[in-house]
Write a structure and sequence with these properties.
The protein is about 20% helix and about 25% strand. By secondary structure, it is an alpha/beta fold. The longest helix is centred in the middle third of the chain and has 10 residues.
Length: about 150
């Protein structure tokens, strides 16, 4: 599958130009087993799996599925993805602890995705995603009912 970056005069501030980068590994939380057609999970830590999509010069070169086998702390899936060489996380939502773990490891987090893994990668390549900030984090770790606005 070839997803090419559109030529747009402006680029979203802070977003890397994937076409100019030689190689980037993107992780996306999924419902079910991860592949390009998988539905994006609305919450990083509660997904079934993670799709790891390798882009080279703006084109998909490889995909890998990593199961989210449960974790003892919110940083363990972050460390697992870092060990796989992920340098960009695309999400709909996540809590404070994984957000801080990604930041500590220098992994960029962008949101504004929906649909499938393929559609999410395309949104990134088109410059439609935006940097996640602390203001956009889920409060599931501190809410009394344990709910998140993404669910």
């Amino acid at each position: 599958m070839s997803l090419k970056k559109e030529n747009k005069p402006e680029n979203v501030e802070g977003q890397q130009d994937a076409k100019q980068m030689d190689r980037i590994k993107i992780a996306i939380p999924c419902t079910g087993e991860a592949n390009l057609q998988s539905k994006v999970s609305s919450h990083f830590g509660r997904c079934d799996s993670y799709a790891i999509v390798t882009l080279e010069k703006g084109e998909v070169k490889a995909t890998e599925s990593i199961l989210n086998g449960g974790h003892s702390d919110c940083a363990s899936p972050v460390r697992m993805l870092a060990e796989k060489g992920v340098n960009l996380m695309l999400v709909e939502g996540m809590g404070m602890r994984p957000y801080l773990a990604f930041k500590q490891l220098g992994i960029e987090i962008r949101c504004g995705i929906k649909g499938t893994v393929s559609e999410s990668v395309e949104s990134y390549l088109k410059g439609e995603t935006y940097a996640m900030t602390q203001d956009g984090l889920c409060g599931q770790h501190t809410n009394a009912n344990g709910s998140c606005h993404h669910e």
